[in-house]
Amino acid sequence: MASGDLTRGRLGMTGIRSSEIAGVHGRRIWDSRGRPTVEAEVELRSGLLGRSIAPAGASTGSGEAVDRRDGPRDATAAFAGFDVTGAVGAVNGEISAALAGMDVADQTAIDATLVELDGTRDRSRLGGNAMIATSMAVAHAAAAAEDVPLWRHLCGSENGALPLPEIQIFGGGAHAGRRLDVQDFMCIAVGAETFGQALDWTAEVYRAAGELLADAGRLAGIADEGGWWPSFDDNEEALHWLIRAIERAGLEPGEQMAVSLDIAASEFGSNGRYTLACEGRALDTGEMIEKLEGWIARFPIVSIEDPLAEDDLQGLRTFTERVGHAVQVIGDDALVTNAKLVREAAAAGACNAVLVKPNQAGTLSETRAAFDAAAAADWGAVISARSGESEDVTVVHLAVGWGAKQLKVGSFARSERMAKWNEGLRIAESLPGGGELPPRASFPWGRR
Ligand code: PGA
Ligand code: ZN
Fold it and tell me: Which of 39, 41, 225, 423 is catalytic?
């Protein structure tokens, strides 16, 4: 079985394919941080099955679907309270009973059933982890029933296309002991023609960055998403080193390889005040915007995620007004993969793209609704994994099947990340355009 192939099920004794759900089996497995997580297997009457694993965030938005954890959250509890026996029990009990007999092809009805069964706004009763693992496993089982890969099941009659990767080189924020305030220093291969070429270039930048840091005695380790964990003195230094790494890889900064940032500002800012710990000072919203504008003027930055905190909608609006014509402004914590919030932000002119994380929404149908709301607003959409991940590659299939133009899954190291990039390479071989990427002009930076 290929590492990324989670859809192969068993044929029943009779060999009959039926899309009726027999039941859902949940089990506790382990994520990339060594924490418990939920795996769900949707089994069909035919014996075919679909399997998926819930990811987990560390820098979460307050409006996200919440994971159900056993608790209590203290260091002396088993697994520091992160165990998921309650969530797994919900999959094996209530969820399995509610979904048994339903048609696996009807994702909308199944997701509505999950939402109704949970009955809470934040998905805390069944657990966002139990719900998303089940919802994604349903999609895998539906693809297995059709005997097609998940991306093909999702794109129906249209041809799928590979997304442009956004790949972390340095990790900071909540993913690296807050050594840097900014969470992700990433690369986007804006000049690459194919998905494979984008990965080739990024591999060279990642390697060059590691060598540069090691030579200078600045390498402190590997951050949660696989990026280098540097010991820099301030956030801007990381930008200088990133440009150096791009050049050392033989690429032209801006033209071939551009920079993108996830500031994850909710982690260090609220009420219009941003405390930059590694720079030893606090900024107000206006100063924060000026600082980011200064970076945009001096470095080839094409995309900035969560430049301001989730409670600073006016700040997001001002920032988007000032730079949104040339730079992609992505909302993650403020929009939490919620269609209504995307529509409201678009109407207000706050952000021009959304980060799409299925476990923020809780079900695939709601994830798709947020994606569609972005398309309706002529926004960009970046399908994204979480900092706590696994071998599950569902997000890659969503990006291809839905025709999302961008994909973010962390860095270019460690198998929970590489499983996704490698799945993209496999899918590319089946697409009519191979791994051809969307044209540059279709991105905001292409109109610069
Ligand atoms: P998280 O980080 O998965 O820890 O929330 C990813 C992001 O902020 O984009
Ligand atoms: Zn983010």
Answer: 225
Q: Using the mean position of ligand 2's atoms as its centre, give its distance from the Cα of residue 251 in Å.
A: 26
**Overall pTM surpassing 0.90 (yes/no):** yes
The pick from 132, 387, 392, 417 for probing ligand 1's pocket by mutation, whose C-beta has the most ligand atoms within 8 angstroms, reads 387
Residue 225 annotated to the active site: yes
Integer CA distances (angstroms), 364 to 44, 279, 329, 330, 394, in order = 19, 40, 24, 20, 11
Cα–Cα distance, 332 to 305 (Å, whole number):
7
Tens digits of residue pLDDT in 56-66? 999 999 999 99
Residue range(s) of every CATH 3.30.390.10 domain in the chain? 21-148
Atom of ligand 1 nearest to the CA of 387: 3
Dump pLDDT digits (tens) for 366-391. Answer: 999 999 999 999 999 999 999 999 99
String of b and e for 73-88 (b: at least 16 CB within 10 Å)?
eeeeeeeeebbbebbb
Q: What's at 173, amino acid-wise? A: G
**288 Cα distance to chain centroid:** 25
List CB contacts of 106: < 8 A, sequence separation 6 or more: none
Q: Residue 299: which region, alpha, beta or left (left: phi > 0; alpha: psi -120 to 50)?
A: beta
Q: Measured from the CB, is residue 354 less than 6 Å from ligand 1?
A: no
Give residue 384 CA to ligand 2 midpoint distance, Å.
Answer: 9
Superfamily of domain 21-148: Enolase-like, N-terminal domain (3.30.390.10)
Q: Can you tell me the mean pLDDT for 40-49?
A: 98
- For residue 24, what are its two tokens? 């859902």
pLDDT at position 158: 82
CATH match of 164-447 with 3.30.390.50? no
Token pair for 239: 């930008």
